[in-house]
Amino acid sequence: MTEQVHQTYDAAAAQQRWQAFWAEDRTFVADDATTRPTRYVLDMFPYPSGDLHMGHAEAFVMGDIVARYWRLRGFEVLHPIGWDSFGLPAENAAIKRNAHPGEWTYANIETQANSFKRYGLAIDWTRRLHTSDPEYYRWTQWLFLKFYERGLAYRKDSFVNWCPTDQTVLANEQVVQGMCERCGSPVTKRQLNQWYFRITDYAQRLLDDMEQLEGGWPDRVLAMQRNWIGRSEGAHVQFAIEGREEPVTVFTTRPDTLYGATFFVVAPEAALAAEIVTDEHRAEFEAYLEQTKRATEIERQSTDREKTGVFLGVHAINPANGAKLPVYAADYVLADYGTGAVMAVPAHDQRDLDFAKKYRLPVIKVVETGEADPAETFVATPGDGTYVNSGILDGLTDKATGVSTMIDRLEATGRGTRAITFRLRDWLLSRQRFWGCPIPIIHCPSCGEVPVPEDQLPVVLPDLRGEDLAPKGTSPLAGPAATQWREVACPRCGGKAERDTDTMDTFVDSSWYFFRYCSPGYTQGPFDPADVRRWMPVDQYVGGVEHAILHLLYMRFFTKVLHDMGMVDFVEPMRRLLNQGQVINEGKAMSKSLGNGVDLGEQIDAFGVDAVRTTIVFAGPPEDDIDWADVSPSSTEKFLQRAYRIAGDVTSAPGTDPSTGDRALRQVTHRTVAEVAALLDDHRFNVVVARLMELVNATRKAIDSGVGGADPAVREAAEALTILLSVVAPYVTEEMWEILGHAPSVANAAWPSVDESLLVQDTVTCVVQVQGKVRAKLEVAADTSEAELERLALADPGVQRALEGREVRKVIVRAPKLVSIVPA
Ligand code: ANZ
Ligand code: ZN
User: Fold this and answer.
1) Which atom of ligand 1 has the smallest separation from the CA of 338?
2) How far apart are the C-alpha atoms of 50 and 507, rounded to whole Å?
């Protein structure tokens, strides 16, 4: 058959045309007044760092598939976009160019927005937001004040990671091997008065509510969250210290090893250390404290690092047996975990043992595990065994009983209690930078901290630029350029007061943006509760696994607080989470220095948006990395052209009854529709593309082998193909839909319904002979395997009877029609 009118499809022209159509038609605007069931698909907030790159292309196509699919299934879909537009890169760019950070930010946003539109995303652009817009950050400030009212935002002095070059506080994650992640300078510790969110109050709930996420979130992410929260069960045990009235409490997960404690360790920067050190040892201690400040937490906790410490000149008393334990300050103990003090049990804890080895401290075994003696091998034995040298525990053989027996004893004697400790710390949110959301607090010499009254929100950033923003050890908002902005009258007493000069961590901005999308123009609060009820929780969240911990934990925390404020009626904001992989090239992450970057814009220019999207999707499961060196956008482009030509070959009219069409092709079509729906539900998008390729092949074969373009089954196949493929390749399918004689848009089409009778496999009759006589007839699917036919034949009661218990010597199978059995 000769190919007819619609030979090739022009990607660039189609992109222009349909982009304009979708905007004009408001195709993807989510209707708040809908009566349909709703679904909410959300992609993680983009940061406006430049134009879109391959990573965006991958992340956003996954969410787009889900959004488009749910639309076709009859849901009213909310699929919004916005920008996480505060942050340090804009500020650094502004310093360099003597400009305002907003100029760089909003220019990049424009570029990205245009690229997203070109990329064919089914986005409701009317809900677009930017966290650096005063109308948005007004509500970030409002939320801060609500947290403050509830005692969930507070200030305290603490040692923080400080980069002397960037002159700012760094989060632990921003410190890499003791160096600033951004500029490489050695990070120091600095004591600062900082704002915190009391996320630790929610530690247990953050753990417990993960039950609701099982099955919807990747197990790996849940494990990382659990780990980060780090719940430990154990005991608080009180130790008397010579010359100190109050006992000191330690947290231990192994109170059962109390008799094995041979020394006592305090974190060097814990207030306790400086308090109890004797004059004789003070100088040495202070020198050690200085040294400690240069190590990161991770280094301090690593087991293979040489242990260091100093004796403080005092002893602690073991509450179990009255033994005198020398007290050390050592940096393997952290000031802000547990109580900042530990009882050291070298026989059963490796870090304690390393320390004991170095400082020649005694090693007393209290659990006999049958392993070599730790005092000789210097390998600690943390496992189960029989308790020895342990008073009431002696003879017990399991850890759980040992632990609970000891805790009962401690509780009875008033020397300890059951305790739970979390690794999770409060969230340090102060940043000494300009381009962030100002903290809406005023400091008054007579009234102290005074919240900015709600009707004075937002506290808008002053207009600083260039040199005003250069790091000078304090926030640019504390500098001379911001004097006018900073100096205000106290809202309470009217006296002279000053604004807080810190801005918020940008993770605060991104902890509630998904609520705002539900009612972006709302002026009575951060969101309209009725709109949130309609759209939320988010049904599908899509984003990178680099956010597996902090962002996801923070937004879960925010949601729980909003729940406690009575503003939302759920506690988990995201039902399902998909972590897409990365796009790499030649086995390595793309980078400027390697010169292996792939430019998204160039790929689109060369192959068209649909081919790029389809290539990404087809490359592998969404969670896997894609190596661009292994994929072939030109062959996906050919596939799309083949699909397009099928639409052109259909000669029947829309609405043609398919029931009289070619049955074999109809079976392929209906099976594909059913299977693709299940695959989309499971996010197996690459297999979806493979099935659609098969549908294209089957349809082409039917047309060319004589069924012809007029057969109703060909129209049915072409229409199903167009609708199914539209979730991946939106432009070419709009063209196909039109060629097939339908009014745009294919996004408004309904998902094809499946005729169950066409899913049933055709059956054949299989004759079973025993010694040449027909003993059974089986109705089986035409593609039943030989092994299966043999099994079915031998299980048949008629065959069993004919065999009369004899062994089978030989079975000959001619699938699918004959099985011949020869008994012994
Ligand atoms: C005695 C002991 C004996 C311990 C033993 C362990 C094994 P997780 O499980 O991570 O919660 N520890 C307590 N506070 C600490 C701090 N601030 N810095 C460093 N280490 C600290 O760890 C709890 C255990 O880590 C505690 O139990 C304590 O050592 C130590 F055979 O107490 B253990
Ligand atoms: Zn005042």
Assistant:
1) 14
2) 20
**Low-confidence winner among 76-80, 304-308, 426-430 (lowest mean pLDDT):** 304-308
DSSP 322: -
Ligand nearest to the CA of 448: 2
Report pLDDT digits (tens) over 271-284: 999 999 999 999 99
- Residue corresponding to tokens 């916005």: 82
d(CA 312, CA 444): 41
Q: Which ranges of 590-652 does DSSP label H, i.e. alpha helix?
A: 600-607, 609-618, 633-649
Helix (H) or strand (E) holding 279: helix 279-292
Tokens 């506690």 correspond to 571
Query: Considering Cα of 733, then 734, then 735, then 741, what sign does the dihedral take?
Result: positive
Total H helices, total E strands in the chain: 27, 34
CA-nearest residue for atom 18, ligand 1, is 333
User: pLDDT tens across 174-226, in order?
Assistant: 777 778 887 888 888 888 889 999 999 999 999 999 999 999 999 999 999 99
Average pLDDT, the chain: 94
In short, whether 348's Cβ falls inside 6 Å of ligand 1 is yes
Token pair 């197996």 is found at 684
Which whole-number Å values give the CA distances from 230 to 217, 301, 531, in the listed order?
A: 19, 15, 35
Q: Would you put residue 471 in left (φ > 0), alpha (ψ -120 to 50) or beta?
A: beta
**Each residue of 363-408: pLDDT tens digit?**
999 999 999 999 999 999 999 999 999 999 999 999 999 999 999 9
Q: Retrieve residue 767's tokens.
A: 């004759």
Rounded Cα–Cα distance for residues 440 and 452 (Å)? 5
Tokens representing residue 216 in the block: 């919807």
> What is the SS3 string spanning 691-735?
HHHHHHHHHHHHHHHHHCCCCHHHHHHHHHHHHHHCCCCHHHHHH
CB of 430 shorter than 6 A to ligand 1? no
pLDDT in tens, 428-452: 999 889 999 999 999 999 999 999 9
pLDDT at 157 over 90: no
Q: How far is the CA of 487 from the centre of ligand 2 (A)?
A: 13
Tokens of residue 88, six digits: 């340090």
The answer to whether the CB of 252 is under 6 A from ligand 1 is: yes
Supply the residue whose CA is at minimum distance from atom 29 of ligand 1.
Answer: 252
**What pLDDT is stored for residue 419 in this prediction?**
97
Residue 395 CA to residue 246 CA, distance in Å, equals 34
How does DSSP classify residue 214? B
Distance CA 604, CA 120 (A): 11
Element (H, E) at 671: helix 663-681
Choosing from 253, 325, 420 the residue with most ligand 1 atoms within 8 A of its CB, the one to mutate for a pocket test is 253
Q: Per-residue DSSP letters for 47-78?
A: P-SSS--HHHHHHHHHHHHHHHHHHHTT-EEE
The per-residue pLDDT for range 187-199, each reduced to its tens digit, is 888 888 899 999 9
Taking the CA of 493 as reference, the closest ligand is: 2
pLDDT of 596 > 90? The answer is: no
Largest CA distance in the chain: 110
pTM of the model: 0.88
Task: For residue 427, give both structure tokens.
Answer: 């969230």
Q: Is the CB of 251 under 6 A from ligand 1?
A: yes
How many other C-beta atoms can be found within 10 angstroms of the C-beta atom of residue 106?
18
Strands 427-428 and 577-579: unpaired
Report the SS3 class of residue 812. Answer: strand
For atom 11 of ligand 1, the residue with the nearest CA is 232
pLDDT tens by residue, 602-616: 999 999 999 999 999
